[in-house]
Design a protein that fits this description.
Elements (H helix, E strand, L loop, with lengths): L14 H21 L17 H23 L6
Length: 81
């Protein structure tokens, strides 16, 4: 005999909040991937790739956008029933 008073687990956020959170984390990871690389195999040789547009401007902007998305997912109001 089943108990009809079974409760569903209460989550802190709704499904949409978790989707935004995962998207934000993915964007942050993408930003760090864009930041990586550009090193030189020989420590005596300087590589100008360190100062490329992708690493100096684009990647930090992508990371900040990702942080913004995750903050939005946390502060997004949940629908009350």
């Amino acid at each position: 005999m089943k108990n009809n008073n079974e409760q569903k687990p209460d989550f802190l956020f709704e499904k949409a909040n978790y989707k935004f959170l995962l998207i934000g984390i993915g964007v942050i990871v993408l930003g760090f991937i864009l930041m990586s690389g550009g090193g030189s195999n020989d420590p005596k040789v300087f590589s100008e790739d360190v100062f490329s547009f992708r690493r100096i401007r684009l990647a930090p902007t992508v990371v900040l956008i990702g942080f913004g998305i995750t903050i939005y997912s946390i502060f997004k109001k949940t629908k009350t029933k």
